[in-house]
Amino acid sequence: MTGHGKPAGDPGERHARAALSFLADPGDPVLGELLRHCPPADVVAAVAAAGSWREALPASSRQVPGLDRAFARWRSRVGEVPPGRRIAAWERAGYRLVGPGDPEWPTQLDDLGTARPVVLWLCGPADLRYSCLRSVSIVGSRAASAYGAHVAGEIAADLAGRGWTVVSGGAYGIDASAHRGALAPGGSTVAVLASGLGFGYPKGHYELFEAIAGSGALVSESPPDRAPTRPGFLIRNRVIAALSRGTVVVEAALRSGALNTARQASDLGRVVMAVPGPVTSDRSAGCHELIRQWGAACVTCAQDVTELLAPLGEDQGQGPDRGPVVPASELDPVTRAVLAAVPRRPGRGPAAIALMAGVGLDTAVRCLGLLAAAGHVERCEQGWRARRSPR
Amino acid sequence: MTGHGKPAGDPGERHARAALSFLADPGDPVLGELLRHCPPADVVAAVAAAGSWREALPASSRQVPGLDRAFARWRSRVGEVPPGRRIAAWERAGYRLVGPGDPEWPTQLDDLGTARPVVLWLCGPADLRYSCLRSVSIVGSRAASAYGAHVAGEIAADLAGRGWTVVSGGAYGIDASAHRGALAPGGSTVAVLASGLGFGYPKGHYELFEAIAGSGALVSESPPDRAPTRPGFLIRNRVIAALSRGTVVVEAALRSGALNTARQASDLGRVVMAVPGPVTSDRSAGCHELIRQWGAACVTCAQDVTELLAPLGEDQGQGPDRGPVVPASELDPVTRAVLAAVPRRPGRGPAAIALMAGVGLDTAVRCLGLLAAAGHVERCEQGWRARRSPR
Predict the structure, then answer these.
(1) Which of A147, A279, A292 is closest, CB to CB, to B280?
(2) How far apart are CA B190 and CA B213, in angstroms?
(3) pLDDT (tens digit per residue) in A193-225
(4) Is the Cβ pair B280, A304 closer than 8 Å?
(5) Fewer CB atoms inside 10 A, N or C side of chain B?
(6) Is residue B332 a part of any domain in this protein?
(7) Residue among B145, B298, B301, B305 with most chain A CBs within 10 A, to mutate
(8) Same domain, A65 and A176
(9) CATH of the domain at A144
(10) Is residue A33 one of the residues assigned to a domain?
(11) pLDDT tier at B382, thresholds 50, 70, 90
(12) CB environment B317-329: b (16+ within 10 A), e (fewer)
């Protein structure tokens, strides 16, 4: 396991990606295309070369369309890039930078093509890659009804209890209910914010973000101090859609941003699901539209969701229990030691597991969270126990 | 137009079919098969022939399977068949007998094959065939919630206002809301009862049945004095499903009889629709099941329903307005005269229309109802006006 508070990968490339997250907006397609032809450090060097940026680029990358206007945009922000020691200070404070190729990078984001994030700023103990291997996005209206908030919380809690990670956008309404629902049973949840993580928009969710950062992961494409922009919310939605196997829309008016997330999920070939509601409620109209016109699956509970998301080959007849998504042989030695200390029945407390595995309690708890997200262990009355294999 | 209070077709055949409605249960498949080979009067004569029933049947019909047990069943009920004068008295009292081949017979019932009704007992001013050419069934739980009752009433009223006939089963709950919704704007509604029309089950709907008999049609396969039987409700459902172009389930628990009607509609190639509701309500669980597992269309309003039921070739871009389902040239002379007296704009009251057409007010009102059901005229503030043709 990597990336828990300590930097991963080549620091030069990591800091170059961090610099690019100051220079370019998330999802900038010209930058995405350019990074297919040359490493991030070359782009940063070219921006620094001002008027002679073209000569500073490797010859093979100079034919990317739109470079003139893009470099003008990026150069106008050169003053916003902080010195390397400021980035290093953020890393020491608990933010970690994860880019393509890093061990914690969720490779499903590569489906975004040139709109793939240049880098992700992360915070929280969950390993983003492992957590999102078995994840569902739950999104919906900020102005949720009591019905929508209740249903989002119930479905999220049930999914989290079955070892699924709940991904959402950290907004008021359905997003918040989904995160809180997942946290309630001690489950795993990931919030992808449109603001920087230090800015933490909306401000009213300070405590919720603290809770997520304490057990799951906060994610942003923007540097920690950035305020959100209006288009930034829609651009952020593609990351929510791409991280998870499917997106559930719980409540959405006909023009809700949640429908945008659903559309992105559909474009990415992810499963799109919608929870029905009263036809007399405007806040369910978008969900019904998804079902009627877009072919979204009508889901009413967590079981409906997992039935749709279980990959082909997993045993559908076994109910909610699925096999691990990461084989034990691919775990790092510390996590394997913790897994070996988890009994089949009746379960064991984390302190005893830590003792048997020969690791500290903090490490044991962190590893148990990852093992749960990956499907190896589950909570029980006595603490933790190994999940039964599907066969 | 035929069949309004006065007998139609051959009285011998009609009374033979009436007699069979006393002898056999609705949907008896042996009787259905037998009637493909010989006329109803031959079957009645054979039943009367007691032990020599086989010789009394035409030779070509003696190979129908199951005749022995069927004749034993039918013969055990010979005493229940009333004398012809009792049937004639029922006809004078306003009941009419309609069988296959009669002008008022809805030919879509022929899709039921050997389960086609032997005869229908009708009461009410609506012409069943014309009324059901553009009809929708709306069915659901007897134990409807306030939500379900409201939505059923709204959709029915809106459909009736657009010239669609609302078919249902006359039960408590969703059925009643659908009938009442259709009656509210002066629309056309048909109740298919599992009991005889004189018995009128459930008794608590006496006034509702009176209202339907006053402007639409009550329909039963059973003789007027028959109480309903438990299997009779399910058998009746096939008539509701077959009469209409599609069935809308508004609220249904997972084991509701309404799902049986939906299944029959599906088997008959009719459009199956379901109205979603709160996932927290058991009474919407059957609707969600229909959408999730059976591929029922998710509908939220009358417009959704008419979009699905408008036949290919009707102009979908014109909104709810559709062309007439019966061309003016096929109307009888009296109805044509009434149609000619209906202005395009701004509309005219029924008394003035009656005067111009040279018919009595009762006749004018009855014809206007039929013309509305067939899509030629519509109500307006001034009374009635011609519907604009779709082109």
Answers:
(1) A147
(2) 9
(3) 999 999 999 999 999 999 999 999 999 999 999
(4) no
(5) C
(6) yes
(7) B298
(8) no
(9) 3.40.50.450
(10) yes
(11) confident
(12) eeebbbbbbbeee
State residue A1's pLDDT score. 33
The token duo for A97 is: 């930078």
ipTM value: 0.75
Q: Note whether A195 and A301 are same-domain residues.
A: yes
Q: Which of B279, B282, B289 best probes binding to A when mutated, by most A CB atoms within 10 angstroms? A: B279
Domain count, chain A: 3
pLDDT surpassing 60 at residue A319: no
Distance from CA of A192 to the nearest CA of B (A): 27
* A134 in any annotated domain: yes
Residues B301 and B192 in one domain: yes
Determine the residue type at A341: A
Q: Which of A280, A285, A300 sits opposite B279 (nearest CB)?
A: A300
Instruction: Report yes or no on B113 lying in a domain.
Output: no
Q: Write out pLDDT tens, residues B326-378.
A: 777 778 888 889 998 998 888 888 888 988 888 888 788 778 877 877 778 87
Domain check: are A44 and A140 in the same one?
A: no
CB spacing of B297 vs A299 below 8 angstroms: no
Average pLDDT over residues B230-239: 95
Q: Is the dihedral of CA A367, A372, A376, A377 positive or negative?
A: positive
Residues of A in Cβ contact (< 8 Å) with B275: 279
Q: Domain containing B16: what range?
A: 11-91
Contact assessment for residue B266 and residue B132, using Cβ atoms and an 8 Å cutoff: no
Strand order in the sheet with A217-220: A96-98, A120-123, A217-220, A189-193, A165-168, A135-139, A246-249, A271-274, A297-298
Query: Looking at CA atoms only, how far is residue A211 from chain B in angstroms?
Result: 28
Nearest to A151 among B279, B297, B299 (CB): B279
A309-A313-A317 Cα angle (round to 5): 75
Q: Tell me the residue type at A295.
A: G
Shared domain check, A180 and A305: yes
Judged against a pLDDT cut of 50, whether residue B321 lies above it is answered with no
More confident residue, B6 or B241: B241
Pairing mode, strands B120-123 and B96-98: antiparallel
Residue that the structure tokens 């992808």 belong to: A192
Count of beta carbons in the 10 Å neighbourhood of residue A142: 16
Q: What integer best gives the mean pLDDT of chain B?
A: 90
Average pLDDT rounded to a whole number, residues A162-187: 96
Closest residue, chain A, to B305 (C-alpha) = A292
Three-state SS for A387? coil
Place of tokens 């969703």: B174
Identify residues of A whose CB sits under 8 angstroms from chain B CBs.
147, 150-151, 275-280, 284-285, 288, 291-292, 297-301, 304
For residue B322, is pLDDT > 60? no
Q: Which residue, B323, B267, B275, is CA-closest to B301?
A: B275
Check residue A9 and give its pLDDT: 61
Half-sphere exposure of B173 (CA within 13 A, CB side): 21
Cα–Cα dist A338/B111, whole Å: 66
**Residue A92 CB burial class (10 angstroms; 0-12, 13-18, ≥19):** exposed
